[in-house]
Amino acid sequence: MRVAITHDWLSGIGGSERVLEQLLRLYPEADLYTAMDHLPEKRRQILLGARVFTSYLQKLPLSNNDPRKLLPLLPNAMGRFDLSPYDLVISNSRIAAKFVRTRPGQVHIGYMSSASRFRWDLQLRHLQARARTIPIGGQMTALLLDHLRVADEASTARIDRIVTTSRSVATRLGASYQRPIHVIHPPVDIDFWSPQQGVKREDFYLALLSGDTGARMDPVVEAFSSMPHRRLLVVGDNESMGRSVRGAASNVEFRQVESDEVLRDLMRKAKALVHATPDELGLLLVEAQGCGLPVITLERAAALEIVQRLDSDAPSGIFFEDRRPASIVDAVERFEREKYRIYSAACRESAIRFRPEAFRAQFSSLVSETLEESSLHFGRPLLQVSRETAVPCRIVEEQPWGVEEALDAVAATVDVYV
User: Fold this and answer.
1) What are the angstrom distances between the C-alpha of 307 and each of 52, 91, 315?
2) d(CA 413, CA 141)
């Protein structure tokens, strides 16, 4: 059986790339198709020697800067891949990987790590943001979203089984697409994210800032700035810290972290992680809990399936209802009163079910079930995947795109939207 795995783009290592790594472990002979590949050489070990095919977007200058700026072109770029020789197609999709086209008789399983960012529930936010920067931005964005919505529905209809990361995302996907959604929690290396014997907790809280918080003061930073007796260590980069650095009080310290090892050491020493971002994957929370670290987090999305409440048999954290600084202050003070009830072992236990072995076992079972149903429907058996040692990784382009050919393909795509 020939297997193709599709992925939005390769530029860094995040939760979606960790899923990709486990899929490649399951199917070591699979070919990998992605719109753009700018993954640094030192990070390429997660590809496990897979052959990588890229689209015409690989040749465009913007592809190495911010792939999200090429969003309107992604459906066309992914749809141009010829996947007809494959029996099984697995799309690992945040936004675009599911746009690939399949033929009758192929099995397509889509692992969606989030409900697509341009779908119904975020449409108004996108329109408002564009209208502020361009006089006719709202109208232009509405037209673009219309086309993306049509492409999204058409591509999703071609998927045989949709799988996602959590029940909260499954609910949103089910409401959008009106079909059953399977849940398989994403993999986290719990052996790496683990406590260290002999390391004692210190008197500081830990927070991580993502790139979308820099335009305003982060609510966690604002909350701790009003609690001078509580120390907060904020981890991020210059872009994400932004205004938060300028408005923070002296009890808030900022630090750039260059590696997972350094972040893990901080998680092993902190009193608790404070997290105010609704997270559909929740991998940061799992990593913290794997280190035995209690979590104080927003009562949304994947957090509800990771952190055990105070009224449970083995609590592992505290929830707050909204992102107002006052709510965060209340949650921190509640944690200070109730922290004696939260044990490191309970935190660790809440993360164990996210082991990569569990992900691979559940995904393999779902694939086998889907293939069996397909073979009964189409009247032909499908072969098993062999598991020979993978060859060294190399990039192979789908076709020898030059800059002129790539620009021609962009022009053809733009014609669709005007």
Assistant:
1) 37, 29, 8
2) 16
Distance of CA 293 to the CA centre of its chain: 22
Closest CA to 4 of 27, 35, 28, 32: 32
Q: How confident is the model at residue 400 (pLDDT cuts 50, 70, 90)?
A: very low
The model's confidence at residue 98, banded by pLDDT at 50, 70 and 90, is: very high
Which helix (H) or strand (E) is 52 found in, with range?
strand 51-54
Task: Take residue 311 and report the two structure tokens written for it.
Answer: 């009224």
Q: What is the DSSP string of 202-223?
A: -S-EEEE--GGGTTS--HHHHH
> 183 - beta bridge partners?
164
Look at residue 93 and give its three-state secondary structure. strand
Give Cα separations from 349 to 192, 289, 345, 353 (angstroms): 15, 8, 6, 8
| Average pLDDT of the residues in 250-274 | 93
Three-class HEC string of 139-171: HHHHHHHHHHHHHHHHHHHCCCEEEECCHHHHH
Q: Six-digit token pair at 326?
A: 């006052």
Please, which pLDDT band fits residue 95 given cuts at 50, 70 and 90? confident
Is the pLDDT score of 176 beyond 70?
A: yes
- Cβ-proximal residues to 10 (8 Å cutoff; 6+ apart), any chain: 17, 34, 36, 37, 38, 39, 52
Confidence of residue 173 (pLDDT cuts 50, 70, 90): confident
pLDDT tens column, 369-384: 999 887 665 554 444 4
Average pLDDT over residues 85-103: 92
Residue with tokens 């465009």: 60
CA gap 328, 363 in Å, rounded: 37
The sheet that has 394-395: what strands, in order across it?
Answer: 182-183, 161-164, 107-112, 88-93, 3-7, 31-34, 51-54, 394-395
Mean pLDDT computed over 376-397: 41
According to DSSP, residue 309 is labeled P
- What backbone phi and psi angles, to 5 degrees, belong to 51? -75, 130
Spell 271-302 as b/e; 16+ CB within 10 A means b.
bbbbbbbebbbbbbbbbbbbbbbbbbbbbbbb
Cα distances from 88 to residues 83, 157, 306, in angstroms, run 9, 16, 31
Among residues 113, 116, 115, the alpha carbon closest in space to that of 185 is found at 113
Q: Report the pLDDT value the prediction gives residue 401, as an integer from 0 to 100.
A: 47
Q: What are phi and psi of 125, to 5 degrees?
A: -65, -40
pLDDT at 14 over 50: yes
Q: pLDDT: is 361 or 383 the higher one?
A: 361
Q: Which tokens hold the place of 166? A: 């959590």
